[in-house]
Design goal:
Length: 215
């Protein structure tokens, strides 16, 4: 099997690449994954790596420089460089570049973004900018594609999913509001207003209506 090395500073990206693709079906296996160039160079020196997949975030070196290093020292290794850069010089014909600026169908972008949102829903840091960085998609292209494909903005969708999960927890658990907010990555001061706007009742009223349904 072809040996694949993944280099990216984003833990989510590495985990997603592991799970998103059936590598066995493609005749590949992930030999290793790391977040910095120093470790990547160590792995390249100790293992026979056939494909080097480099993300946009490498802890201690620009991705393009790591690609050039691999090309110069390990010419048998094919390099795939995922990047948000608009202009990337081609190193040679053996290099493949996966650019997020190349348009993909909106529904593919939406599906990928929704999957990311579900995994990161409890994180207060979840936002469009972070999603674009982790998914290696241009910020403006992700925003536009998501709005066109989902019918609502990225932020609106995140808030909707958080409120839906909150409603499920209100109806099925005795968790305090602040505990629910922790589980959905939302500040309590913002939660009450958004919940009332979405469900036309307060969280407490929603809980009472489900604990004691009216006949």
């Amino acid at each position: 099997m072809l040996q694949l090395l993944i280099v990216d500073n984003s833990k989510w990206t590495k985990e997603h690449l592991y799970k998103a693709t059936n590598w066995d079906l493609l005749g590949m296996e992930v030999a290793a994954a790391c977040s910095n160039a120093a470790k990547a160079c160590e792995i390249l020196a100790s293992k026979s790596i056939d494909i080097l997949l480099i993300g946009t975030e490498v802890a201690d070196m620009e991705p393009i420089k790591l690609a050039q290093y691999a090309h110069n020292h390990y010419p048998h290794t094919k390099v795939v460089l995922m990047s948000t850069y608009k202009d990337i010089p081609l190193l040679d014909s053996n290099h493949t570049y996966a650019s997020p600026n190349a348009k993909a169908p909106n529904q593919k972008i939406v599906s990928l973004a929704k999957s990311y949102i579900e995994q990161q829903l409890c994180e207060k840091s979840l936002n469009l900018k972070q999603a674009a960085a982790d998914l290696h998609i241009n910020y403006y292209y992700l925003s536009k594609s998501f709005k066109e494909g989902a019918g609502i903005s990225f932020t609106e969708y995140v808030n909707t999913r958080r409120l839906q999960v909150a409603a499920e927890l209100l109806a099925s658990t005795k968790l305090h509001i602040y505990q629910i907010c922790e589980q959905i990555g939302m500040e309590p001061k913002n939660f009450h207003g958004l919940f009332r706007k979405y469900y036309d009742m307060t969280p407490q009223e929603y809980r009472r209506s489900h604990l004691h349904p009216q006949n």
